[in-house]
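Data deposition worksheet. Section B asks for the primary sequence of the deposited chain exactly as it was used as input, without tags or linkers unless they were present during the calculation. Section C holds the resulting structure in C-alpha coordinate form. Section D is free text for depositor observations; keep each observation to a single sentence. Incomplete worksheets are returned to the depositor.
Section A, Depositor: J.P.
Section B:
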Amino acid sequence: MISSVSPGEPSPSFVALMLITGTTALSTDTYIAALPQMQADLGTSAVVAQLTMTSCIAGMAIGQLITGPVSDARGRRRLVLASTVVFMVMSALCAITTIGWLLVAARLVQGAACGGAAAVGRAVVTDAFAGRTAAAKFGTLSAVSLVAPVVGPAVGGVLLTVGTWRTIFWFLATVGALMTLAAVRGLPETLPPSRRHPGGLRQLVLRSRTLLAEPTFRTPVLVQCLTVGGFFVYIGGSSFVLQHDLGISEQRYTAVFAVNAAVMMTSSLLFRLLVMRFGPATLRRVAVVVQSLAVGALFTATTVAPGHRPSLPVVWVCLSGMTLGLGTYLPANASIVQLLGRRFAGTASALGGGIPFLVGAIMTPLTGVIGQQTVHAMASAMVVFFTLAAVAALVSRLRFGPAADPAVDAAVDA
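Section C:
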Protein backbone atom coordinates (compact mmCIF):
# COMPACT_ATOMS: atom_id res chain seq x y z
CA MET A 1 0.00 0.00 0.00
CA ILE A 2 1.23 3.45 -0.80
CA SER A 3 1.09 6.65 1.13
CA SER A 4 -1.41 9.24 0.01
CA VAL A 5 1.13 12.01 0.65
CA SER A 6 2.44 13.27 -2.66
CA PRO A 7 6.10 12.66 -3.53
CA GLY A 8 8.29 15.35 -2.06
CA GLU A 9 5.84 16.19 0.71
CA PRO A 10 7.06 15.46 4.26
CA SER A 11 5.32 12.59 6.03
CA PRO A 12 3.99 13.13 9.55
CA SER A 13 6.11 11.81 12.38
CA PHE A 14 4.43 8.77 13.85
CA VAL A 15 5.93 9.60 17.24
CA ALA A 16 4.07 12.93 17.07
CA LEU A 17 0.86 11.14 16.11
CA MET A 18 1.25 8.73 19.03
CA LEU A 19 1.64 11.63 21.45
CA ILE A 20 -1.30 13.56 20.00
CA THR A 21 -3.78 10.69 19.74
CA GLY A 22 -2.46 8.20 22.30
CA THR A 23 -2.30 10.28 25.47
CA THR A 24 -5.98 11.25 25.61
CA ALA A 25 -6.84 8.84 28.42
CA LEU A 26 -4.17 10.34 30.67
CA SER A 27 -6.55 13.27 31.23
CA THR A 28 -8.85 10.99 33.20
CA ASP A 29 -6.80 8.00 34.35
CA THR A 30 -4.05 9.91 36.16
CA TYR A 31 -6.65 12.00 38.01
CA ILE A 32 -8.97 9.32 39.41
CA ALA A 33 -7.03 8.75 42.64
CA ALA A 34 -6.89 12.51 43.33
CA LEU A 35 -10.67 13.11 43.45
CA PRO A 36 -11.08 12.83 47.26
CA GLN A 37 -8.07 15.06 47.90
CA MET A 38 -9.28 17.66 45.41
CA GLN A 39 -12.77 17.69 46.96
CA ALA A 40 -11.36 18.27 50.44
CA ASP A 41 -8.85 20.90 49.31
CA LEU A 42 -11.43 22.99 47.44
CA GLY A 43 -14.13 22.42 50.06
CA THR A 44 -16.60 21.41 47.39
CA SER A 45 -19.26 18.70 47.15
CA ALA A 46 -18.91 15.15 45.88
CA VAL A 47 -21.20 16.08 42.97
CA VAL A 48 -18.85 18.84 41.82
CA ALA A 49 -15.87 16.54 42.26
CA GLN A 50 -17.49 13.92 40.04
CA LEU A 51 -18.45 16.59 37.51
CA THR A 52 -14.77 17.38 37.03
CA MET A 53 -14.48 13.89 35.54
CA THR A 54 -17.78 13.91 33.67
CA SER A 55 -17.15 17.29 32.06
CA CYS A 56 -13.77 16.15 30.76
CA ILE A 57 -15.30 13.01 29.20
CA ALA A 58 -18.12 15.05 27.65
CA GLY A 59 -15.58 17.55 26.37
CA MET A 60 -13.64 14.79 24.64
CA ALA A 61 -16.75 13.74 22.72
CA ILE A 62 -17.71 17.32 21.84
CA GLY A 63 -14.17 18.18 20.76
CA GLN A 64 -14.09 15.27 18.34
CA LEU A 65 -17.50 16.06 16.87
CA ILE A 66 -16.62 19.72 16.24
CA THR A 67 -12.91 19.80 15.42
CA GLY A 68 -12.85 16.80 13.07
CA PRO A 69 -15.32 18.25 10.51
CA VAL A 70 -13.78 21.73 10.79
CA SER A 71 -10.37 20.27 9.84
CA ASP A 72 -11.81 19.16 6.48
CA ALA A 73 -12.27 22.85 5.67
CA ARG A 74 -9.40 24.50 7.54
CA GLY A 75 -6.64 21.91 7.35
CA ARG A 76 -5.09 19.73 10.03
CA ARG A 77 -1.90 21.33 11.33
CA ARG A 78 -3.28 24.60 12.74
CA LEU A 79 -6.14 22.85 14.50
CA VAL A 80 -3.83 20.28 16.09
CA LEU A 81 -1.49 23.04 17.28
CA ALA A 82 -4.40 25.05 18.66
CA SER A 83 -5.80 21.98 20.43
CA THR A 84 -2.51 21.04 22.07
CA VAL A 85 -1.87 24.62 23.23
CA VAL A 86 -5.38 24.89 24.70
CA PHE A 87 -4.90 21.53 26.43
CA MET A 88 -1.65 22.77 27.97
CA VAL A 89 -3.17 26.09 29.12
CA MET A 90 -6.30 24.47 30.55
CA SER A 91 -4.21 21.91 32.42
CA ALA A 92 -2.26 24.77 34.02
CA LEU A 93 -5.52 26.57 34.85
CA CYS A 94 -6.80 23.40 36.53
CA ALA A 95 -3.60 23.30 38.59
CA ILE A 96 -4.04 26.82 40.01
CA THR A 97 -7.81 27.17 40.37
CA THR A 98 -9.37 27.46 43.82
CA ILE A 99 -13.02 27.25 42.71
CA GLY A 100 -14.75 23.93 42.09
CA TRP A 101 -17.04 25.09 39.30
CA LEU A 102 -14.14 26.81 37.51
CA LEU A 103 -12.32 23.48 37.61
CA VAL A 104 -15.38 21.80 36.04
CA ALA A 105 -15.42 24.39 33.23
CA ALA A 106 -11.66 24.13 32.66
CA ARG A 107 -11.92 20.34 32.51
CA LEU A 108 -14.64 20.62 29.86
CA VAL A 109 -12.41 22.76 27.65
CA GLN A 110 -9.40 20.59 28.42
CA GLY A 111 -11.32 17.49 27.31
CA ALA A 112 -12.57 19.23 24.15
CA ALA A 113 -9.01 20.19 23.21
CA CYS A 114 -7.77 16.66 23.88
CA GLY A 115 -10.57 15.07 21.87
CA GLY A 116 -10.14 17.54 19.03
CA ALA A 117 -6.43 16.79 18.74
CA ALA A 118 -7.13 13.03 18.70
CA ALA A 119 -9.83 13.36 16.00
CA VAL A 120 -7.62 15.44 13.73
CA GLY A 121 -4.70 13.10 14.40
CA ARG A 122 -6.73 10.16 13.07
CA ALA A 123 -7.58 12.23 9.99
CA VAL A 124 -3.85 12.88 9.46
CA VAL A 125 -3.27 9.11 9.37
CA THR A 126 -5.98 8.82 6.71
CA ASP A 127 -4.43 11.67 4.71
CA ALA A 128 -0.92 10.28 4.86
CA PHE A 129 -1.37 6.51 4.61
CA ALA A 130 -3.54 4.20 2.53
CA GLY A 131 -5.11 0.75 2.71
CA ARG A 132 -3.71 -1.84 5.07
CA THR A 133 -0.74 0.37 5.91
CA ALA A 134 -3.18 2.89 7.39
CA ALA A 135 -4.96 0.06 9.23
CA ALA A 136 -1.64 -1.04 10.76
CA LYS A 137 -0.98 2.54 11.91
CA PHE A 138 -4.39 2.62 13.59
CA GLY A 139 -3.50 -0.62 15.36
CA THR A 140 -0.38 0.96 16.82
CA LEU A 141 -2.24 4.12 17.89
CA SER A 142 -4.90 1.98 19.54
CA ALA A 143 -2.27 0.03 21.47
CA VAL A 144 -0.59 3.24 22.62
CA SER A 145 -3.90 4.69 23.79
CA LEU A 146 -4.51 1.55 25.85
CA VAL A 147 -1.27 2.05 27.78
CA ALA A 148 -2.90 4.91 29.72
CA PRO A 149 -5.44 2.74 31.63
CA VAL A 150 -2.52 0.56 32.77
CA VAL A 151 0.05 3.22 33.69
CA GLY A 152 -2.20 6.26 34.28
CA PRO A 153 -3.45 5.35 37.76
CA ALA A 154 0.08 4.32 38.78
CA VAL A 155 1.51 7.63 37.54
CA GLY A 156 -1.20 9.51 39.41
CA GLY A 157 -0.46 7.57 42.56
CA VAL A 158 3.27 8.32 42.36
CA LEU A 159 2.60 12.01 41.76
CA LEU A 160 0.36 12.13 44.81
CA THR A 161 3.18 10.77 46.97
CA VAL A 162 5.41 13.69 46.03
CA GLY A 163 2.79 16.40 45.61
CA THR A 164 -0.95 17.10 45.57
CA TRP A 165 -3.77 16.80 43.08
CA ARG A 166 -2.46 20.02 41.53
CA THR A 167 0.80 18.22 40.71
CA ILE A 168 -1.14 15.90 38.42
CA PHE A 169 -2.41 18.84 36.39
CA TRP A 170 1.09 20.33 36.15
CA PHE A 171 2.13 16.91 34.82
CA LEU A 172 -0.68 17.08 32.23
CA ALA A 173 0.40 20.62 31.31
CA THR A 174 3.88 19.22 30.65
CA VAL A 175 2.34 16.48 28.49
CA GLY A 176 0.50 19.23 26.59
CA ALA A 177 3.78 21.08 26.02
CA LEU A 178 5.35 17.88 24.67
CA MET A 179 2.35 17.35 22.38
CA THR A 180 2.70 20.90 21.07
CA LEU A 181 6.43 20.50 20.48
CA ALA A 182 5.90 17.18 18.72
CA ALA A 183 3.23 18.74 16.48
CA VAL A 184 5.42 21.73 15.64
CA ARG A 185 8.40 19.58 14.69
CA GLY A 186 6.77 16.46 13.29
CA LEU A 187 3.34 17.27 11.91
CA PRO A 188 3.26 18.96 8.50
CA GLU A 189 0.02 19.98 6.85
CA THR A 190 -1.39 16.83 5.23
CA LEU A 191 -4.51 18.40 3.72
CA PRO A 192 -3.46 21.02 1.15
CA PRO A 193 -5.97 23.75 0.11
CA SER A 194 -6.72 21.94 -3.15
CA ARG A 195 -8.20 19.00 -1.21
CA ARG A 196 -10.17 20.97 1.35
CA HIS A 197 -13.93 21.36 1.41
CA PRO A 198 -16.14 24.42 1.89
CA GLY A 199 -16.51 25.69 5.44
CA GLY A 200 -19.62 26.88 7.23
CA LEU A 201 -22.04 25.06 9.52
CA ARG A 202 -24.31 24.02 6.67
CA GLN A 203 -21.44 22.36 4.80
CA LEU A 204 -20.22 20.66 7.96
CA VAL A 205 -23.66 19.17 8.58
CA LEU A 206 -24.02 18.22 4.91
CA ARG A 207 -20.77 16.25 4.96
CA SER A 208 -21.90 14.37 8.06
CA ARG A 209 -25.26 13.58 6.46
CA THR A 210 -23.54 12.42 3.26
CA LEU A 211 -21.39 9.92 5.11
CA LEU A 212 -24.17 8.69 7.41
CA ALA A 213 -26.45 8.19 4.39
CA GLU A 214 -24.10 5.45 3.15
CA PRO A 215 -25.01 2.11 4.76
CA THR A 216 -21.44 0.78 4.50
CA PHE A 217 -20.24 3.76 6.56
CA ARG A 218 -23.24 4.05 8.88
CA THR A 219 -23.29 0.40 9.95
CA PRO A 220 -19.75 0.23 11.42
CA VAL A 221 -20.43 3.47 13.31
CA LEU A 222 -23.64 1.95 14.72
CA VAL A 223 -21.89 -1.30 15.65
CA GLN A 224 -19.13 0.65 17.37
CA CYS A 225 -21.68 2.70 19.33
CA LEU A 226 -23.26 -0.50 20.63
CA THR A 227 -19.90 -2.14 21.34
CA VAL A 228 -18.48 0.87 23.15
CA GLY A 229 -21.73 1.21 25.11
CA GLY A 230 -21.30 -2.33 26.41
CA PHE A 231 -17.62 -1.76 27.15
CA PHE A 232 -18.35 1.41 29.13
CA VAL A 233 -20.85 -0.52 31.25
CA TYR A 234 -17.85 -2.63 32.28
CA ILE A 235 -15.69 0.47 32.79
CA GLY A 236 -18.34 2.19 34.90
CA GLY A 237 -19.53 -0.82 36.89
CA SER A 238 -16.68 -3.27 37.30
CA SER A 239 -14.96 -1.50 40.20
CA PHE A 240 -18.06 -1.53 42.40
CA VAL A 241 -19.56 -4.89 41.45
CA LEU A 242 -16.33 -6.90 41.59
CA GLN A 243 -15.28 -5.46 44.94
CA HIS A 244 -18.71 -5.47 46.59
CA ASP A 245 -20.51 -8.36 44.91
CA LEU A 246 -17.56 -10.75 44.67
CA GLY A 247 -15.78 -9.32 47.69
CA ILE A 248 -12.34 -8.88 46.15
CA SER A 249 -9.88 -6.33 47.50
CA GLU A 250 -9.01 -3.03 45.86
CA GLN A 251 -5.55 -4.37 45.07
CA ARG A 252 -6.93 -7.48 43.39
CA TYR A 253 -9.40 -5.40 41.38
CA THR A 254 -6.50 -3.21 40.20
CA ALA A 255 -4.74 -6.38 39.05
CA VAL A 256 -7.85 -7.58 37.18
CA PHE A 257 -8.31 -4.23 35.46
CA ALA A 258 -4.62 -3.90 34.58
CA VAL A 259 -4.38 -7.42 33.15
CA ASN A 260 -7.51 -6.90 31.04
CA ALA A 261 -6.13 -3.60 29.74
CA ALA A 262 -2.82 -5.32 28.95
CA VAL A 263 -4.68 -8.07 27.05
CA MET A 264 -6.48 -5.38 25.06
CA MET A 265 -3.22 -3.59 24.28
CA THR A 266 -1.54 -6.83 23.21
CA SER A 267 -4.47 -7.64 20.94
CA SER A 268 -4.08 -4.24 19.25
CA LEU A 269 -0.39 -4.93 18.65
CA LEU A 270 -1.26 -8.34 17.17
CA PHE A 271 -3.78 -6.62 14.92
CA ARG A 272 -0.97 -4.44 13.56
CA LEU A 273 1.03 -7.56 12.70
CA LEU A 274 -1.88 -9.52 11.18
CA VAL A 275 -3.72 -6.80 9.28
CA MET A 276 -1.18 -6.63 6.45
CA ARG A 277 -1.93 -10.28 5.66
CA PHE A 278 -5.63 -10.66 6.42
CA GLY A 279 -7.03 -7.13 6.12
CA PRO A 280 -9.12 -5.24 8.70
CA ALA A 281 -12.50 -6.56 7.52
CA THR A 282 -11.60 -10.20 8.25
CA LEU A 283 -10.02 -9.38 11.60
CA ARG A 284 -13.02 -7.29 12.57
CA ARG A 285 -15.38 -10.22 11.93
CA VAL A 286 -13.22 -12.50 14.08
CA ALA A 287 -13.09 -9.87 16.84
CA VAL A 288 -16.88 -9.46 16.90
CA VAL A 289 -17.28 -13.22 17.36
CA VAL A 290 -14.67 -13.40 20.14
CA GLN A 291 -16.02 -10.48 22.18
CA SER A 292 -19.64 -11.60 21.75
CA LEU A 293 -18.89 -15.17 22.87
CA ALA A 294 -16.93 -13.91 25.87
CA VAL A 295 -19.72 -11.61 27.05
CA GLY A 296 -22.29 -14.34 26.38
CA ALA A 297 -20.23 -16.73 28.51
CA LEU A 298 -20.09 -14.15 31.31
CA PHE A 299 -23.86 -13.72 31.22
CA THR A 300 -24.40 -17.50 31.24
CA ALA A 301 -21.97 -17.97 34.13
CA THR A 302 -23.65 -15.31 36.26
CA THR A 303 -27.09 -16.74 35.44
CA VAL A 304 -26.38 -20.33 36.46
CA ALA A 305 -23.99 -19.70 39.37
CA PRO A 306 -25.39 -19.99 42.93
CA GLY A 307 -26.58 -16.57 43.98
CA HIS A 308 -25.58 -15.31 40.51
CA ARG A 309 -22.01 -15.03 41.81
CA PRO A 310 -19.50 -17.10 39.80
CA SER A 311 -15.92 -17.39 40.97
CA LEU A 312 -13.46 -14.61 40.21
CA PRO A 313 -11.37 -16.75 37.79
CA VAL A 314 -14.48 -17.43 35.67
CA VAL A 315 -15.42 -13.74 35.57
CA TRP A 316 -11.83 -12.73 34.91
CA VAL A 317 -11.42 -15.12 31.96
CA CYS A 318 -14.66 -13.91 30.39
CA LEU A 319 -13.74 -10.25 30.79
CA SER A 320 -10.27 -10.93 29.37
CA GLY A 321 -11.90 -12.60 26.37
CA MET A 322 -14.01 -9.49 25.84
CA THR A 323 -10.97 -7.20 25.96
CA LEU A 324 -9.07 -9.58 23.66
CA GLY A 325 -11.77 -9.10 21.03
CA LEU A 326 -12.04 -5.36 21.63
CA GLY A 327 -8.30 -4.84 21.21
CA THR A 328 -8.64 -6.05 17.62
CA TYR A 329 -12.13 -4.75 16.91
CA LEU A 330 -11.50 -1.09 17.79
CA PRO A 331 -8.52 -0.45 15.45
CA ALA A 332 -10.08 -2.61 12.71
CA ASN A 333 -13.36 -0.72 12.80
CA ALA A 334 -11.61 2.67 13.11
CA SER A 335 -9.48 1.96 10.06
CA ILE A 336 -12.48 0.82 8.03
CA VAL A 337 -14.53 3.89 9.00
CA GLN A 338 -11.63 6.17 8.07
CA LEU A 339 -10.98 4.38 4.79
CA LEU A 340 -14.63 4.53 3.74
CA GLY A 341 -14.89 8.20 4.72
CA ARG A 342 -11.45 9.29 3.59
CA ARG A 343 -12.79 12.01 1.23
CA PHE A 344 -14.04 13.74 4.41
CA ALA A 345 -11.44 12.26 6.76
CA GLY A 346 -11.95 14.75 9.59
CA THR A 347 -15.72 14.29 9.52
CA ALA A 348 -15.31 10.50 9.41
CA SER A 349 -13.00 10.68 12.42
CA ALA A 350 -15.54 12.78 14.32
CA LEU A 351 -18.46 10.46 13.55
CA GLY A 352 -16.50 7.23 14.06
CA GLY A 353 -14.86 8.39 17.28
CA GLY A 354 -16.99 11.15 18.79
CA ILE A 355 -20.44 9.54 18.60
CA PRO A 356 -19.38 6.16 20.10
CA PHE A 357 -17.42 7.99 22.79
CA LEU A 358 -20.47 10.07 23.65
CA VAL A 359 -22.64 6.94 23.81
CA GLY A 360 -20.07 5.25 26.03
CA ALA A 361 -19.94 8.21 28.40
CA ILE A 362 -23.72 8.18 28.72
CA MET A 363 -23.73 4.42 29.35
CA THR A 364 -21.06 4.49 32.08
CA PRO A 365 -23.50 4.68 35.04
CA LEU A 366 -25.96 2.17 33.52
CA THR A 367 -25.04 -0.65 35.90
CA GLY A 368 -26.22 1.43 38.86
CA VAL A 369 -29.34 2.65 37.07
CA ILE A 370 -30.75 -0.72 36.04
CA GLY A 371 -31.05 -2.03 39.57
CA GLN A 372 -28.89 -3.92 41.98
CA GLN A 373 -25.19 -3.38 41.38
CA THR A 374 -24.16 -6.99 40.87
CA VAL A 375 -21.98 -8.90 38.44
CA HIS A 376 -25.16 -10.38 36.98
CA ALA A 377 -26.65 -6.92 36.42
CA MET A 378 -23.46 -5.75 34.72
CA ALA A 379 -23.29 -8.88 32.55
CA SER A 380 -26.98 -8.53 31.61
CA ALA A 381 -26.47 -4.97 30.37
CA MET A 382 -23.27 -5.89 28.55
CA VAL A 383 -24.78 -8.89 26.76
CA VAL A 384 -27.62 -6.73 25.41
CA PHE A 385 -25.18 -4.25 23.85
CA PHE A 386 -22.76 -6.82 22.46
CA THR A 387 -25.57 -9.00 21.10
CA LEU A 388 -27.17 -6.03 19.32
CA ALA A 389 -23.76 -5.11 17.91
CA ALA A 390 -23.21 -8.64 16.58
CA VAL A 391 -26.72 -8.77 15.09
CA ALA A 392 -26.23 -5.40 13.37
CA ALA A 393 -22.91 -6.58 11.94
CA LEU A 394 -24.49 -9.86 10.75
CA VAL A 395 -27.47 -8.12 9.16
CA SER A 396 -25.10 -5.81 7.30
CA ARG A 397 -23.08 -8.78 6.04
CA LEU A 398 -26.21 -10.61 4.87
CA ARG A 399 -27.55 -7.46 3.23
CA PHE A 400 -24.41 -6.84 1.20
CA GLY A 401 -23.85 -10.46 0.32
CA PRO A 402 -21.12 -13.03 1.03
CA ALA A 403 -18.40 -10.67 -0.23
CA ALA A 404 -19.12 -8.67 2.93
CA ASP A 405 -18.93 -4.95 2.35
CA PRO A 406 -17.53 -4.67 -1.17
CA ALA A 407 -16.90 -1.01 -0.54
CA VAL A 408 -14.67 -1.92 2.39
CA ASP A 409 -12.60 -4.32 0.30
CA ALA A 410 -12.26 -1.75 -2.47
CA ALA A 411 -11.19 0.96 -0.03
CA VAL A 412 -8.72 -1.23 1.86
CA ASP A 413 -7.07 -2.68 -1.21
CA ALA A 414 -6.99 0.60 -3.14
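Section D:
The two ends are 8 Å apart (CA to CA).
The CA atoms of residues 64 and 353 lie 7 Å apart.
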